[in-house]
Write a structure and sequence with these properties.
Number of strands: 0
Order of helices and strands: HHHH
Number of helices: 4
Largest sheet: none
Oligomer: single chain
Strand content: under 5%
Helix content: 55-70%
Length: 79
């Protein structure tokens, strides 16, 4: 006997609720590090990506990230 499964509308509602909860926590400033990690994972699992357009928040984050040179890392490891 087949179990009753949630339909697409129910899954869409759950998806919407989870997304809105992440937004609310982040916008309110109450998001913990775990919340932020979970929100990043949620975005990745839903194939959501961003483009670092000049002047955007993502661009600002990218600008402060250190540049890592693979060859330099390899040389440092071998020392």
């Amino acid at each position: 006997m087949a179990k009753n499964r949630a339909n697409e509308d129910v899954f869409n509602e759950l998806h919407n609720l989870i997304t809105r909860e992440f937004l609310a926590r982040i916008k309110s400033g109450e998001a913990t590090t775990q919340d932020l990690k979970a929100a990043c994972d949620w975005l990745a699992k839903n194939d959501i990506t961003g483009v670092a357009v000049e002047g955007s928040a993502l661009s600002g984050l990218a600008d402060i990230m250190p540049t890592i040179d693979f060859d330099e890392v390899q040389r440092a490891i071998r020392r």
